[in-house]
Amino acid sequence: MENCVFCKIIAGEMPAKFVYQDDLIVAFPDIKPSAPVHILIVPKKHTESLKTTSEEDQVLLGKMLLIAGKIAKDLGISESGFKVVINNGPDAGQLVKHLHFHLLGGWAKNEGRVTI
Ligand code: AMP
Ligand code: ZN
To answer: Which of 6, 15, 101, 111 has the CB geometry, 3.0–4.6 Å to 41, for a possible disulfide?
Structure first.
């Protein structure tokens, strides 16, 4: 999709260091990390958010969660603890209108604990 920063990264038109990629998904570090480890997990297909996904995305969404767990393990934050966050829409703070999961972790002991 035109003017979508994540579509440009997926097309190789903007730089990103992929930590994972397959036929459906890419993952790369957030340019402005909110945690010591902050990876974005992004579907290659452009869809805005969980507002625009449907039943046909069931396998993709499940795979994105499995990949979050795999990357957490690969990056050594699986045992210490990690979060997966999805911002949907303006009031939730979604800035990039291409669905993505934030994988966050790598804090010092208990530092990542917040009540939600
Ligand atoms: P959200 O607020 O959920 O839409 O998050 C979008 C995230 O994308 C933010 O944390 C940004 O720091 C990140 N971001 C924006 N542009 C880039 C980029 N070119 N490479 C990596 N991360 C980016
Ligand atoms: Zn896009």
So the answer is: 101
Cβ–ligand 1 contact at 41 (below 6 Å) = no
Cβ contact 18:9 at 8 Å = no
- pTM for the structure as a whole: 0.97
Domains of the chain: 5-110 (3.30.428.10)
- Which of 38, 46, 98, 100 is an active site residue? 100
Nearest residue to 42 (alpha-carbon basis) of 93, 82, 97, 3: 97
**Radius of gyration over every alpha carbon of the chain, rounded to an integer in angstroms:** 14
Q: Are 42 and 6 in contact (CB under 8 A)?
A: yes
Q: What are 12-24's pLDDT values in tens digits?
A: 999 999 999 999 9
- Confidence band (pLDDT; 50, 70, 90) for 114? confident
